[in-house]
Amino acid sequence: MNFFFNLFQTEGFPPRWYCGSGWAEEPEVGWLHIVADVVTFLAYIAIPCVLAFFVLKREELVFPNIFWLFAAFIVSCGFVHLVEAIIFWFPVYRLSAILKVVTAIASTATVLAMIRVMPAAIALPGIADMNRRLRGEVQRREEIQKELEHNNEELREFTASVLNREDRISELKQEVNHLLQELGRASKYMNQS
Questions:
Q1: Which UniProt keywords apply (predicted)?
Q2: φ and ψ at 10, to 5 degrees?
Q3: Nearest CA to 68 among 51, 80, 53?
Q4: With bands split at pLDDT 50, 70 and 90, how would you rate the model's confidence at 105?
């Protein structure tokens, strides 16, 4: 329990600058570590922000919890790098150890979650497969549309043919009536046009 109460205590631990003579002889090596760790920290904080933006904007995301686990894992990695840079001046090795344990837990949880969802993720259709299915559906609908247009044209032609026959029948009735009148007989089709 003392470990946690002394998390920020530095007694007994020298700053990294004073660990060995190499840092004094080649301080640029220390600064390379510091700059790389700080830049890595900044990137490791930016990546989860981008992931969070993506997860919050994407409504149909299949495995959103995996993204949150990645974010936790990456943030914890980032803080490990930040503390590694700070240790050059303030030897908070206990805090560093805790952050590394948190990172180990987050990393392990992420790996286990990835293993668990991997079969389902592999089974998801890819973009190429979805595009192929969509093209097939579009082609099928275009064929149905052409068939409907062809059937409509046949129906129009049939309707026109029926109307033409009706007109011709009317004409024939009038001719029959006219002939019957000439022969002095009663019209058969008086009330019909």
A1: ATP-binding, Coiled coil, Membrane, Metal-binding, Nucleotide-binding, Transferase, Transmembrane, Transmembrane helix
A2: -115, 0
A3: 51
A4: very high
- Lowest mean pLDDT, pick from 61-75, 77-91, 93-107: 61-75
Structure-block tokens of residue 180: 């019957």
Whether residue 165 has pLDDT greater than 80: yes
Render pLDDT for 174-185 as a digit per residue (tens, 0 to 9): 888 888 888 888
Q: Give the sign of the dihedral formed by CA 118, CA 121, CA 122, CA 123.
A: positive
Tokens for 148?
Answer: 């409907």
Rounded distance between C-alpha atoms, residue 174 and residue 182, angstroms: 12
Quote the Cα angle for 58-59-65, to 5°: 75
In Å, what is the CA distance from 188 to each residue of 57, 170, 183? 80, 12, 13
